[in-house]
Specification:
Blueprint: E1 7-12, H1 18-29, E2 33-34, H2 36-42, H3 47-56, H4 64-71, H5 78-88, E3 93-96, H6 100-103, E4 110-116, H7 119-130, H8 134-156, E5 168-171, H9 172-202
Parallel strand pairs: 1-3, 1-4, 2-3, 4-5
Helix pairs in contact: 1-9, 2-3, 3-5, 7-8
């Protein structure tokens, strides 16, 4: 739709400073941030809150709406994905994790990003920015990455982090936070030029 604002989805390995990248992009484009906390707050006090909370915390069997959906032969992701789409609507935004790259894969004005980095660099990021010990950081990274992998596979039947699920995969360990932001900005600029070119060519 012509009035749809841009959505940037950010998937990331744990420890790649995705929150800081997202915050810079949010300020650059004046877009709202939609991470777990913001999405849950948007449906606080409604029955959709329980469904979305179950989705984010992977409590598949504890959700009444989930049970209803399954009894109606609806895919497990239909209910929470529908809630997220309704929250965001045409406002656009920065969507963190939550299978955002899959959820908005067919939406025209969407840029899908994945951040990765060497594990040692990610460990150092957590030690530096969160004050963890190296052993704590290593264990948290392994646990979070495993959880994100299984979560994404369950809800999308796709492999988390595979390049064909994204438009741009960036090594935060090499580029750093500002380098990742600049690469994304450059990509969006080129992408807009390409879309304009193909649109004009299709009319000739």
């Amino acid at each position: 739709m012509a009035n749809e604002k841009m959505i940037i989805t950010i998937g990331r390995e744990h420890g790649t400073m995705g929150e800081k990248v997202a915050d810079k992009l949010r300020k650059q484009f004046h877009l709202p941030l939609y991470d777990k906390a913001h999405l849950l707050k948007a449906v606080e006090g409604t029955e959709e809150y329980d469904e979305l909370n179950a989705f984010f915390n992977d409590r598949k069997v504890n959700s009444l709406l989930y049970a209803i959906a399954m009894s109606a032969s609806v895919r497990a992701n239909d209910v929470p994905f529908g809630i997220i789409k309704n929250i965001i609507g045409d406002t656009g935004g920065i969507v963190m994790d939550g299978c955002g790259n899959y959820l908005f894969r067919n939406r025209p004005n969407t840029v899908r990003i994945f951040l990765h980095a060497n594990k040692d660099i990610r460990i150092n990021n957590l030690v530096t920015h969160l004050g963890m010990t190296k052993e704590q950081a290593r264990k948290e990274i392994e646990a979070e990455d495993s959880k994100r992998y299984e979560f994404h596979k369950y809800y999308t039947e796709e492999i988390w982090g595979m390049s064909n699920g994204y438009e741009l995969c960036l090594d935060e360990g090499i580029l750093g936070i500002d380098g990742c932001v600049q690469m994304i900005l450059d990509y969006i600029k080129i992408r807009k030029q390409w879309l304009l070119f193909t649109a004009n060519r299709s009319r000739t």
